[in-house]
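Hey, can you fold this one?
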Amino acid sequence: MQNHSNFQDTFKIVNNCKVYDPKKCFQFLEEQGKLRYSSNFKIDPKDIPIIYKLLIYAIQDNKNAFKLGIDLNKGLLLTGPIGCGKTSLMKLIKPFFHPKNDYKITTTRYVSFEFAKSGYESLAQYTLKTPQQNRLSGYCFDDLGAEQQIKHFGNDCNVMAEILITRYEHFIENEAVTHITTNLSATEIEKAYGNRVRSRLRQMFNLIAFDRDAIDKR
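Sure. Predicted structure:
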């Protein structure tokens, strides 16, 4: 079967700049979804405004980002009910990011398990930059709120709160970018991580939210 999914088809070069065709971008995403997840993968028309915002952010389209109220210097806080497709979209949208804005995706549960096993040393990859780096590596922390409060040698630590507060400091200092997916509401985030983290999140992220009644696509 011929594979029609070609990233190069999503844009044309005009005056040394990439000009993207939204229709072809959606087609690419849907075809990649079929390849990666299931032949039944299909973009729900109700999700198009959400995905369009993610695309505008990824390609760093200043004009349309301004119209949509998106700050291209901040990260993405993608919220919505379980199964609406947040994680899949953060994976599928990656090819549209410039290499300097690329990010790794890790689950918050994995981060907390690593902390339980190795302690604070395990957090270094998320909170420290190497001498060769100008800023921290980009990360998308998937499913914020799914992790447990972890004990390491008897010490309690709200691991993701520690990481987010540290990455906020790097965001202020050198524009280090962080992305998050979560099922939690703003109130639930404050309850789990405290008002200090919630206030930092407002400054660090563009909130992009699925409707509460978005269907479970699993």
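DSSP finds nine helices and nine strands in the chain. Let me know if you want another pass with a different chain boundary.
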